[in-house]
Specification:
Length: 159
């Protein structure tokens, strides 16, 4: 009987915690910069428990952070700021090179491979309530691709 009560309490606590953590961030990274370079992109995977949207981001490394999209327009790849990125419930949305990303501009310092960049994402739910999600993004090499180092075709799954 005590085990059942403890299990119920633990389950309730987990549900309460997951209700507050309504967006999960995975594999957050930022592309390294060269000296004097003032802009770079931040990339990650976002998974929302409820329909919501990424509406903004910030970082102590710069005052200028925008959510951007890269898209083909008249056979030319163009980058533009977007007001938000939709995060459908239960579907992973990937911010990646060549697509949606967070743009860090007017950087105060060079970002070197191995550094960590603090980011705050602002997520807005269907009820217009906003949630801040703190992220620590690892700086990867200038030539880094969308996949983390050591990532293979099987992903992060265990066999």
């Amino acid at each position: 009987m005590k085990f059942a009560i403890r299990s119920a309490i633990v389950a309730a606590a987990m549900l309460a915690a997951s209700a507050h953590a309504h967006v999960t961030v995975k594999d957050a990274w930022v592309r390294a910069t060269v000296p004097q370079q003032k802009a770079t992109g931040a990339y990650m995977q976002l998974l929302a428990a409820q329909d919501s949207k990424l509406i903004s981001a910030s970082s102590p490394l710069t005052q200028a952070v925008e959510v951007h999209e890269m898209a083909m327009q008249d056979n030319v790849m163009k980058m533009r700021q977007v007001p938000s990125v939709e995060l459908p419930a239960g579907k992973t949305v990937e911010l990646k090179p060549g697509g949606y990303h967070v743009m860090l501009m007017d950087l105060k310092q060079q970002l070197k491979e191995g550094d960590t960049v603090p980011l705050t994402l602002v997520i807005e739910g269907k009820d217009s309530k906003r949630e801040s999600v703190e992220v620590k993004a690892l700086v990867r090499a200038l030539n880094a691709s969308a996949q983390p180092a050591g990532h293979n075709a099987h992903g992060n799954r265990k066999h």
